[in-house]
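A note from the maintainers: we've had questions about how concatenated examples are separated. There is no special marker in the raw files; a new sequence line simply starts the next protein. For clarity in this README we add a label.
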Amino acid sequence: MVLTPLEKASILVEALPYIRRFAGQTVVIKYGGRAMVSEELKEGVITDCILLKLVGIHPVLVHGGGTEIDTMLRRLGKDWKFVRGQRVTDEETMSVVEMILAGKVNKEIVALINKLGGKGVGISGKDANLIEAGKKTLPAAPGEEPVDLGYVGEIIRVNPEIIETMKNEGYIPVIAPIGVGKDGESYNINADYVAGEVAAALGANKLVLLTDVEGILADRNNPSSLLSVVKVSEVPELIRKGIIAGGMIPKIECCVQALKKGVGRVHIIDGRILHSILLEVFTDEGVGTMVVNE
């Protein structure tokens, strides 16, 4: 579709009040799913972040990398499983997770930011003790034992000074979701939880979670059943009914915690839509599901 000059001008005019409103604010973006696989979507996400930075908004990227981890584990002939949306992580798996997330995926994202004209810096939660963590055990479901997830971490504290320094100096921080324990051990932490806690620690105006669906659907087989707004008070019932299930559970849990800790707005959006971040930040309609603290 080719836009006329007038249509292009109208888009810029619509964006202007949002640019003014969010100037100087921080937007934490959880980057994962298909947006990390498709080359077109990769460039779209990174271009969006660079544009935000250029107009005075501070994007902070927290990335996943589950597909790359699965590929490496498969090459090594190692099985894996998920429990309630979280990867069970033994010592060998933890080594693979850290190698892929902090060593490969993180640096590829940084390289793309730099290639497209931004200034990216990659870190993990171990740098400057950014993410202090302890071992996470899932509480028992009815009639079951508690689940030992291995080297899966629970965030104890986020120390955001290193992020503040980078974003204030014009850099786009890119964070791999690895936490550090009290004895220096590494912990695999769900990137959604990391994004939520980082957003809270930074006092972010927005937390945006990119996913592979339109948002939260009342009927997972019907894209037109999108719930444009979900209240925190509705979340337990939506989980009980199975409307929120699987990998969407940690996403919604991180949304709820971020809102309770002071993050301004939280959005779950479709990362398969090119420039979905700009559509969410700079247009009247937005995309996906907004979670509100009611």
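[label: protein 2]
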Amino acid sequence: MKVQVENVSSIEKRLSIEVEPAFVEKELAQAYAQLSHQVKLPGFRPGKVPRRILEQKFKNEVEADVVKRVQLRAYIDAVKEHNLPAVGDPHLSGGKLEAQKPFAFTARVEVKPALSPKDYKGLGLKKFSTEIADEKVDEQLTRLRESRATFEKLEGRDVAQVGDLAVIDFDATQGGQPFPGNQGRDVNVEVSAGELIQGHLPQLEGMKVGDKKTFDYAFPADYRVEEVKGKTASFEVSLKELRAKKTPAADDAFAKELGQESLEALKARIRGDLERGARRSAAQDERADIFQKLIEKNDFEVPQSLVERGIDIMLEGAFGQMQRQGLDLRNLNLDWGKLREELRPKSLVEVRGQLLLEAISTEEKLDVTEADLDAEFEVISQETGVPVPAVKVQFKSPQQKDTLKGRAFERKALELIKSHAKYE
């Protein structure tokens, strides 16, 4: 096989490839031999159909398949032979099967740019705090108590006040016509400021149990029900019952309900969770700051296939989280093209930053040892609260090990940059 590599740009190569006739003929022979066992033709046993008969009936299909197979195999071998850092799928063109003649075609493919990173030592970076004030612990404790609050039927008062939970029936119309979801029975809402679609109904304040009230509500422009999005509907509401919120006291009994021995132990657990979150947030902010400062000092072309893949990863992560929350993506009416364009700048920054970290790792001859991998297990354990042995179980496959090694390389490069940084 002959291969000529040309530079189209700093991020694209053009490969002119010639494959020996003998290799192409071998692929053709194998394709026809396989086809002979698959087809059923009158007068021939399986596997005994002559090639000339098969060529008469299936030549175009067989040759098209062989062209694709020969192109792909030759391209992969050429990339390996010339050690090209190819990214994305190649654009293949040309290639004509002619007896006893070389099979010639071209492949254009994006590659990672060859970078010589500069000015990555002495960066001016920000300091991000991970301290947790006592007030934050108290706020989280209050949220926990609120999440365990119960609502009991209100006695001695039948007029709605802010903070009550109300049980209502409602009927709604838009332009005098019903719409999907326009009726509700025994629906729980809060008598508080906010949006009706999120369970808040401030209009109930001052209403008496048994009374009815009519009011208008303007639905958001991105509401999921097409018939009323961006439109105003008329609601008739019947107040059936009032309930009062009962929030558990912040004491040892409440802590024991959550599996802690005492209130102080619960506060310690809350503080630990908040500190882990603060460390994660600070690490993300610091990484973003480093990426931005590196990019400002290093301008280079970026393969678009890497940017597109970055967008794919972001979407997969976001959609996975939505599905875990029980959301049906089919009901969100998402504009996929617009969403991808909104994510493109973020993906571009991420790709540039990662490429620069790779180049810095190469420049500084960084290597990942078993000790580095063990340290990474410890970091993941601290981030997630999962014991180290359990974390190791999650990283057994070759792909997972490569991911872990990539994390370790990135962490070492970031630590090197931080060790030479000037903090503001």
